[in-house]
Amino acid sequence: MVNFGFIRVAAAISELKVADCRFNAKRIKELLHQAVEKKVEIVCFPELSITGYTCGDLFLQNRIIEEAEETICGLINDTKNLPVTYIIGAPVRINNCLYNSAIVCSEGNIMGVVPKSFLPNNSEFYEKRWFNSSPKRYLKHICYAGCHVLFGTDQIFGAGNKKFAIEICEDLWAPIPVSSHHALAGANLIFNLSASNELTGKHEYLNSLIKQQSARCIAGYIYASAGWGESTTDVVFAGNGIIYENGILLARSERFKPGEQLVISEIDTDRLDNDRLRTCSFRDSIPDNDDYAEVEISLMEKMEYDENRNLEMEPLKLRRTINPFPFIPSDEQYDLSCMEIFSIQTFGLAKRIRHTNATTSVIGISGGLDSTLALLVCVNTCDKLGIPRNKIIGVTMPGFGTTDRTYNNAVLLMKSLGVTIREINIKAACEQHFKDIGHNPEKHDITYENSQARERTQILMDIANQADGLVIGTGDMSELALGWATYNGDHMSMYGVNSGVPKTLVRHLVKWFAETRTDEKTASILKDVLDTPVSPELIPSKNGKISQCTEEIVGPYELHDFFLYYTIRFGFTPEKIRYLAQQAFKGKYNTETISQWMKTFYKRFFSQQFKRSCIPDGPKVGSINLSPRGDWRMPSDASSALWTID
After folding, report:
1. What is the per-residue pLDDT for 311?
2. DSSP state of 14
3. Quick check: 500 and 623 in contact, CB under 8 A?
4. pLDDT per residue as tens digits for the range 269-321
5. Which listed residue (169, 217, 338, 378) is catalytic?
6. Is 47 marked active-site?
7. Are the C-beta atoms of 158 and 164 separated by less than 8 Å?
8. Which one is catalytic: 39, 116, 391, 611?
9. Catalytic residue (choose from 47, 127, 170, 558)
10. What are the tens digits of pLDDT across the range 464-489?
11. What pLDDT is stored for residue 135 in this prediction?
12. Which stretches of the chain drop beneath a pLDDT of 70?
């Protein structure tokens, strides 16, 4: 199966009976069969899932210790033909010590036994009464359930870029969790077998621990905690199955649900590895030497065959959701995130105005999205600095392609916001320029278009000189990525407030401002701007209608922003990005359309780097930026051949 770096994992909450090992093994086996049907590669069960966590002093009975080992021996034999790796919990006796352990099983073998490091022994917990803590930095060979295996915490399982390690419950709550060492040793998946009881407020804190640890370790974190069937003599276990990836929640179980649950999602190991590669603090923390044992488990091979052992070539169908708009804030953080982005733009411009001692801000207003957002930032900046809004000079410059709709919106918006309005029609100047260079004005080619863009930029620059002003750039990051700007035309300014904002986010910021930050009159104008097709308006209009639609020429911005995010943020291959786009835009764009615009994206992204190599200053607002002084350093003459896939 083609999986593009994804690995399907599960947290299994099995039903159990306290001290009934055979019943518990039967339920584990049933959940494993369900996991195989769902093509899960690794399943994690709760702490002490073979015996139950709440056995108390029964753990000191030889019968239960021996029965646990015999049951596991039978379980691995019964599941030897199942193409799945699984992790169960059991008490393991070595010499005269008993260890609360995780047991990794695969293809009829035990691959390793991992003991718990930190034993809680306060309040409702009494683990030190029965168990020993794991010896620190210790590995030894043991024989357990008929298998000769390694015993110790410092073990990593898997192969290639899919490697996992284990910590058990309290190990996560320690000042330096065991998983921190595992991650630095190379594990990008952490499985936690737990038996954490419920208390008021504890669940929220537990989630914050898992979220933070998955982020600090830049890892997938799969947490399976005891649930239905554990003793409720003094405490209650709600059955928590939680899966995080680098601080992002992917899946969780329903708490307090009677019965069993299988919580499934996919972890993107490519994404994790790329983040680790670019995070200096992570790389610098890796010890020069470590004594970890690596136990090979060929996880990919397990997923290549279905129940009939037939080779599968179709891509993995993801259960997790791929967000088609990776730059747009989530619903629960929407208002806060939009305010933060807008504030970053405002604060950046405020500093530049103060530093240059500019007395005015000069900005070209077209009636389109980008100049609208830039104008809103200018207005907010003046308000913050106590500068009258009439110190903003908004210049509308009608040309051959300007429509009444965009012109009227530009003028109405400037009036509504109280800025100084200047109108300069560029037609005569451009016609004179065409005559000067010997260009036929009936030939609507790139010379015809770019002459207008450069004329407008010249006007803005000269007005800024005239008015002791600063030219505010309006171009966005998506345009920079595609090179959709005229070199030394709209490409140039004195400070680009939108340079870190992709087109899809520009739209949402204007919408947010219209809905939450302005009066009804201004909001009405902004909403019409939002409804206007994106266009440079450089070709004469037809019957007063826009004749140039940018997205018909270069492709949908929502696709290009998707390509941009996964190319720059994670360095994914074109094949993987196309696969993700198929998941994200299913039902909207077919594979042929995605491939077509992806080729356009890469060709333009590589060929237009020379424009990005000399862009003006502007604030970074999100996780990526294309500034040559910041996030993106690329030769202007690099080849796109490796990226332009068929």
Report:
1. 39
2. -
3. no
4. 999 999 999 999 999 999 887 789 999 998 755 554 444 444 345 788 899 99
5. 169
6. yes
7. yes
8. 116
9. 47
10. 999 999 999 999 999 999 999 999 99
11. 80
12. 1, 300-313, 645-646
CATH tag for 331-612 (out of 3.40.50.620, 3.20.20.20, 3.40.50.150, 3.20.20.70):
3.40.50.620
Q: Does residue 116 carry a catalytic annotation?
A: yes
Q: Is 80 within 8 Å of 47 (Cβ atoms)?
A: no
Quick check: 177 and 169 in contact, CB under 8 A? Answer: no
Cα 239 to Cα 224: distance, rounded to the nearest angstrom:
8
Q: Are 380 and 342 spatial neighbours (Cβ–Cβ below 8 Å)?
A: yes
Are 506 and 373 in contact, with CB atoms under 8 Å apart? Answer: yes
Mean residue pLDDT across the chain: 94
**Given this model, what pLDDT does residue 543 score?**
74
- Joined together, the tokens standing for residue 17 give 């009976």
Nearest to 378 by CA among 401, 412, 356, 349: 349
Active-site annotation holds for 257: no
pLDDT, position 308: 44
In angstroms, rounded to a whole number, what is the distance separating the alpha carbons of residues 182 and 189?
A: 9
% of the chain with per-residue pLDDT over 70: 97
CATH architecture of 6-61+118-123+156-303: 4-Layer Sandwich (3.60)
For 572-588, letters b (16+ CB in 10 Å) and e give bbbebbbbbbbbbbeee
